[in-house]
Structure formats: structure tokens, C-alpha cells
Specification:
The protein is α+β, with helices and mostly antiparallel strands and about 140 residues long. The chain is built from three helices and six strands, in the order H-E-H-E-E-E-E-H-E.
Length: about 140
């Protein structure tokens, strides 16, 4: 005989299931993480840590959707109006070394994830993206 005094399922388990479904459907916000580095050469362990970064971020609930590394400032060409010069527009101790696009729950989560970025002598900057689209040839 069925015990009618016991519910078939508990309300907390239903709430958890609904919350999980909603989280699956809601896309996370995308952020650009700009990597500034002052070191001319990165040690092997720092390069390896950059390779491990997507997995470490995923473990904490985020996701890297795109990324790129940039060569040194000596390869830059700056264009301001009609003036074209070799080198970066602004001389700084740190150079923009790379950028990656990160998906996170909110800005606080994005900052916590960006802090995992291995840096020798520099830092990172986190900015929310207004839009990120990959354009493909048709």
C-alpha cells in the first residue's frame, strides 16, 4: 500500500531541477580579458600555465570561447589620422600581449576567473563585451 502521507518528490529537488534548467538556457555574459605583460620572455612554466588556463577556468564555472596572442610592440604599426608610425601608439612598460573572450556569470565571476591568468610582470584588464561575433566567408 502507498504511504499517502509522504510526498512523491520534495519541493527542494524540484526547485534545484528548475534552477539547473534555467541556468542551462541562460547564456553567460561575455568579457574581454586583455593581458598586459612587461616580460620580454615568458618562462616555460608560465607558457604551460597559459595552456592549462581554459581547463582551470572551466573548473570554476566559466568558459574561454576565443583567444589570441600578440607579438611584441616592435611589430606594431600605429595609424592616427593620416600619420602612420612604426611601433605602438603609446609607449608603456607593459605591452598588450593577448586577449581572450571569457564567459562568466557576472563581472565578479569574470574578475575571479581573470585573476587565474598567469602573468610575470604586468596584469589583466576585464571589460564586458557589447557583442562578439565570428564572421565567416560565405
Amino acid at each position: 500500500m502507498t504511504d499517502l502521507t509522504r510526498p512523491l518528490c520534495s519541493a527542494p529537488s524540484i526547485a534545484v531541477a528548475v534552477a539547473r534548467k534555467l541556468a542551462e538556457k541562460q547564456p553567460m555574459t561575455q568579457y574581454a580579458v586583455l593581458i598586459f605583460e612587461g616580460a620580454k620572455e615568458l618562462p616555460a612554466e608560465v607558457l604551460a600555465a597559459h595552456g592549462d588556463l581554459p581547463g582551470r577556468i572551466a573548473e570554476k564555472g566559466g568558459r574561454i570561447v576565443a583567444g589570441l596572442a600578440l607579438p611584441g610592440n616592435e611589430t606594431a604599426t600605429a595609424i592616427r589620422g593620416e600619420e602612420i608610425t612604426d611601433g605602438p601608439f603609446i609607449e608603456t612598460k607593459e605591452a598588450l600581449a593577448g586577449v581572450f573572450v571569457l564567459e562568466a556569470r557576472d563581472l565578479d565571476h569574470a574578475i575571479a576567473l581573470a585573476e587565474l591568468t598567469p602573468i610575470v610582470d604586468g596584469g589583466v584588464e576585464v571589460r564586458p563585451l557589447l557583442g562578439f561575433h565570428v564572421l565567416e566567408d560565405s
